[in-house]
Amino acid sequence: MKRYVSLFCVALIAGCGSPHLPPAPPKIVTTTTRRGRDFDTSRAKDIQNNQTTTTEIIKWFGEPFAKKIVSTNQIGWLYEWNQSTLTTDRSTKTVNIRETGYRKKLELLIIDDVIRNHIFDEGPFEGERTTEAR
Question: For the chain, what are the domain ranges?
Fold first, then answer.
């Protein structure tokens, strides 16, 4: 009987002494991110500098994602949306990050409620970068 009690105590102590380490993080992680507010780009070709008004822009695209004061009489509006997939590879001594996605961006310069200048960009994109592992 003493032998069984001794074995039970040894097993109990050995079980308490073993470390409970968290699982190792995965070497390759993929995440999807979204930024901005999606908008219909079909009317982007209809924007005419010095003619299109802010009322038309709001009717076509809705409220901008961001606004900023450029100068005393100039305002900037931004419509922006992108969705991308980031793949982070930590399997070597460096961290490799690959990003692929799709973006839409419309920037407007406004004076007296009229579009004075605009830039529109839409399409797929990709990029890679490498950093030192920490």
Answer: 24-132
